Fold this sequence. Notes:
Elements: E1 3-10, E2 22-24, H1 28-42, E3 45-50, E4 53-59
Parallel strand pairs: 1-2
Antiparallel strand pairs: 1-4, 3-4
InterPro entries: YpzH
Pfam families: YIEGIA_cap
Amino acid sequence: MTSQILAVITLSKENIAGGAPIFIEPNKEKMQQTAFTLEKILDAMVHEVSEDTLIVVRHK
């Protein structure tokens, strides 16, 4: 099984870097809304990394 991080959604851009698209949102509600929209579009799953960061992952 391989997994791929497709996107990172966060409230604090200071702690995030990398090759996946990064979405910086102003509040938790908008962060979750963006994550779940991407989850459906990309046919993937959302995982909480920390209180202020979510990742969208495709599991194969």
